[in-house]
Amino acid sequence: MLLKMEEQHMDQALQATTLTVTGMTCSGCASKVDKALRGLEGVRDISLHYPETTVGVLHSASVTPEVIRETVTSLGFEVTAA
Ligand SMILES: [Cu+2]
Predict the structure, then answer these.
(1) Which residues lie near ion ligand 1 (Cβ < 5 Å)?
(2) Against a cut of 0.70, is the pTM above it?
(3) Is residue 27 assigned to a domain?
(4) Fewest C-beta in 10 Å: which of 9, 30, 32, 57?
């Protein structure tokens, strides 16, 4: 999924990445994932509603899906789709 705001400069274009995160067993896990992703430079917004496993990330083009995936897996959770 890719959202581009044509009227803005390229470096301000936002992209939406959706991933499925498994291994979150309580809202504490979910807030850990939420905080870590919000801490990434270039991330504008996170959509995470535990116990749903779908996580939406609104971010600038400088943030790659790989960085998002690695941030989640480094916390000990699994990304099954991105
Ligand atoms: Cu937990």
Answers:
(1) 25-26, 28-29
(2) yes
(3) yes
(4) 9
